[in-house]
TrEMBL record:
Name of this chain's protein: RNA polymerase sigma factor FliA
Residue span of region Sigma-70 factor domain-2: 18-90
NCBIfam families, sorted: FliA_WhiG, PRK06986.1, sigma70-ECF
Ranges for region Sigma-70 factor domain-4: 188-236
DNA-binding segment(s): 210-229
CDD domains given in the database record: Sigma70_r4
Known role: Sigma factors are initiation factors that promote the attachment of RNA polymerase to specific initiation sites and are then released. This sigma factor controls the expression of flagella-related genes.
Domain of life (superkingdom): Bacteria
Region (Disordered): 148-174
PANTHER family per record: RNA POLYMERASE SIGMA FACTOR FLIA (PTHR30385:SF7), SIGMA FACTOR F FLAGELLAR (PTHR30385)
Protein's cellular compartments: Cytoplasm
Keywords, alphabetical: Cytoplasm, DNA-binding, Sigma factor, Transcription, Transcription regulation
Main localization category: cytoplasm
């Protein structure tokens, strides 16, 4: 065996060891995500996608990276799972359509008044009941509709600007655009009502699920779902310029 073959063999062995050692990380991330997703999502599908992400991380990891392998692998595993969720979007087109309609009314009201759109006014203009309105907010949360840049083609296939975790995979122009989007999104979040800001922070930065956030705020899980959904709809309305 020549030097090149020996080196490749060592690389394969190192990758296999990394995969075996960090396999539990895949299940941990999968079940953490499941706490924030509808019961219709199969955890087995997430684990399978995550294992592919772990394999790719093990093959591509180099010791000159600033992050540890576990940190790097966690990013790739989570990214692979989110890609799988986007690919197998379970959300009916009607849900995306209703959320777009609510967001458009929110945008109109806020442009007219210069203030946060009140739920009562949104319901009045749409001619829907509080029950119907709250269902749209719940659907906005479960559908992961914080996708403010995807083309609005009516197919419902949408991703989240918060999902992009591995900037190494982006080209220079993509990275610039992504950074600009993140800045615009952060600015838009800072304009939300305080309670909506808090829910967004706990959900996306602290990665608490709705039940845990409810315990923090002292409200029911369904109420957290409504606040979260309202924040997503409001952001969708305010980030319209970033949509394709």
């Amino acid at each position: 065996m020549n030097v090149a073959s020996e080196y490749l063999q060592l690389q394969r062995e190192d990758a296999d060891q990394l995969v075996r050692k960090h396999a539990p990380l895949v299940r941990r991330i999968a079940y953490h995500l499941m706490g924030r997703l509808p019961p219709s999502v199969d955890v087995g599908d997430l684990v399978q996608a995550g294992m592919i992400g772990l394999l790719e991380a093990a093959r591509n990891f180099t010791t000159d990276r600033a992050a540890s392998f576990e940190t790097y692998a966690g990013i790739r595993i989570r990214g692979a799972m989110l890609d799988e969720l986007r690919r197998t979007d379970w959300t009916p087109r009607s849900v995306h359509r209703k959320v777009r309609e609510v967001a458009e009314v929110v945008r109109q009201i806020e442009n007219e008044t210069g203030a946060d759109a009140e739920s009562a006014e949104v319901m009045k203009r749409l001619g829907i009941s509080a029950e119907e309105y709250h269902q749209v907010l719940a659907d906005a949360t479960s559908a992961r509709l914080l996708s403010l840049t995807a083309p609005d083609d009516g197919d419902g296939g949408e991703g989240s600007p918060l999902d992009v975790a591995d900037n190494d995979s982006l080209g220079p122009q993509d990275s610039i655009e992504q950074d600009g989007l993140r800045e615009a999104l952060a600015e838009a979040i800072s304009t939300l009502p305080k309670r909506e800001q808090l829910v967004m922070s706990l959900y996306y930065e602290q990665e608490l699920n709705l039940k845990e956030i409810g315990l923090v705020l002292g409200v029911t899980e369904s109420r957290v779902c409504q606040i979260h959904g309202q924040a997503l709809v409001r952001l969708r309305a305010r980030m319209g310029d970033w949509r394709g």
